[in-house]
């Protein structure tokens, strides 16, 4: 039997994260599909989108007011003859040219007429019969967006790998795309282990524990852009565990929970080693989640028959797996820190750095140094006045404490005492 822990050390958080990011850069989605724009939210764009015309397609007024020649306003107040009105979306036809001494009444979003080079906002004007009196000068270009200033016709407006949020969807709509090519969601197998673990609906004995990790992971997988595939609970018994791992390797990624600590019945690493797995790390200097495992396994398994009407890419030589610690909060935290970037990469999303925000600490923290901590906390305050405070918890099994929290406070391994009022890193999860 291979001994994974001798070749795959306990890494610092940053090293473990870097290893994951390096491997995430090697994976790719398996196929494309087409979706309606209305159902594209959260999906990953698989085609580059170009502007089908200049944006804006004409010089556009950004204000209600008067389209003028800026040089006509050298002396104030200036009186100009109003020669007409331009609404947004005027019928195509003969557009009058603005001459010296003239103004057009113009609405927000309307095209600037030839000859005009600025718009005076309505609050600096007063209308008297056919004339408008203007009390403020304007610089050329003021209150106008030039044709093509936001994007030139044919230029790239959205690239593949972009997660479709509301702004990207609006941009796709504005370049005339009602259907989009997106990447197929990766299938992520979730395998929970432990003799004590029973299904949510099953009758439960006094020392048994309901399976919560499969459900929290399914939610996280979905949110990260994957499609969770829940496997039956594996007992702490090698043969059945191996069978279920083999099933899990049919998916694009395998997430296991439990069975990765140092206990006599923690069999996950041993079984994976027997299957010729390569381990990149078998622990990270973090809390919660220290025994987290990341590796890959040579792939003899076919990816399954692809559905028709999809562009299917080349098969992969190996499958990645994570062994996440079984304690429920450790499972959730290690998913966020390590599994999420791999799922995002498998879903075709361009890599993005993990960044923490900062908030002021409400009450001091004293803690043993040595591990990077990701502790459940409550972010409160309002607007610019953010404050954060740890929730009291019973350790990494305490789901109730985690569900009362709305973020994780991030404490570097060299800090023992952090004072109230200090700025502290926060992970918004
Ligand atoms: P393990 O990592 O297998 O040593 O498990 C650590 C702790 O997490 C034990 O108290 C387990 O009962 C608990 N645990 C493991 N898997 C699950 C699960 N799927 N749902 C809830 N608790 C779990
Ligand atoms: Mg266990």
Task: Note down, in words, how this protein is organized.
The protein is α/β, with parallel strands linked by helices. The chain is 18% helix and 30% strand. The chain has eight helices and 31 strands. The strands form nine sheets. A six-stranded mixed beta sheet has the order 8-5-7-6-10-9, with no helix packed on it. The relative contact order is 0.15. The N terminus is likely disordered. It binds adenosine monophosphate and magnesium ion.
Write the layout of secondary structure elements.
Layout lengths: L3 H4 L2 E2 L1 H12 L6 E6 L12 E2 L9 E2 L3 E4 L9 E9 L15 E5 L11 E4 L3 E4 L2 E4 L9 E2 L10 E3 L7 H9 L4 E5 L3 E6 L4 E2 L10 E2 L2 H11 L3 E4 L7 H11 L4 E5 L10 H7 L3 E4 L1 E2 L1 E2 L5 E6 L12 E2 L5 E7 L3 H19 L10 E5 L3 E2 L5 E11 L2 E6 L8 H6 L2 E5 L5 E2 L4 E5 L2
Parallel strand pairs: 1-20, 6-7, 14-17, 14-18, 15-16, 18-24, 21-27, 25-28
Antiparallel strand pairs: 2-13, 2-23, 3-12, 4-11, 5-7, 5-8, 6-10, 9-10, 19-22, 22-24, 25-31, 26-30, 27-28, 27-29, 29-31
Bound molecules: adenosine monophosphate (AMP) and magnesium ion.
Magnesium ion binds next to loops.
Number of helices: 8
Give the total of beta strands. 31
Proportion of residues in β-strands? 25-35%
What is the mean pLDDT?
94
Give me the secondary-structure category. alpha/beta
Overall helicity? 10-25%
The end-to-end span amounts to 39 Å
For the largest beta-sheet, the strand count, sense and barrel status come to: 6 strands, mixed
What molecules are bound to this protein? Answer: adenosine monophosphate, magnesium ion
